[in-house]
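Predict structure. Chain length: 124.
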Amino acid sequence: MKKVLKFVVHRHEAKHLHFDLRLEHKGVLKSWAVPKGLPENPGIKRLAVEVEDHEIDYAAFEGTIPEGSYGAGKVEIWDAGTFIDEEWDKDKITVRFNGRRLSGRYSIIRFMEKNWLVIKLGSE
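Prediction complete.
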């Protein structure tokens, strides 16, 4: 049986508005900046840029990162919930989200060192 894990999507008003996808994995939150947000329809691909891991507690963070600090700006939780990882290797991750806004299967596929594509998969 697959383990149920936590995810969060932060809406981050920094230099440019973007969304941060964070997935619980091996005791940390693996994180990606997603400039245009996660796709909500099957087949749509969105760029996701891998960023540094965060501590699990960061999943509950909402507030303002002060000017002069990395990532300065307003952070709010856009969605949160649980997911099941169906596949997780160094170049491809497939998960099933169960959140308030996000649900269903998504793949995150590496195409360059830090650049990935997030794709919502069709229903199965």
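Summary: The mean pLDDT is 94.
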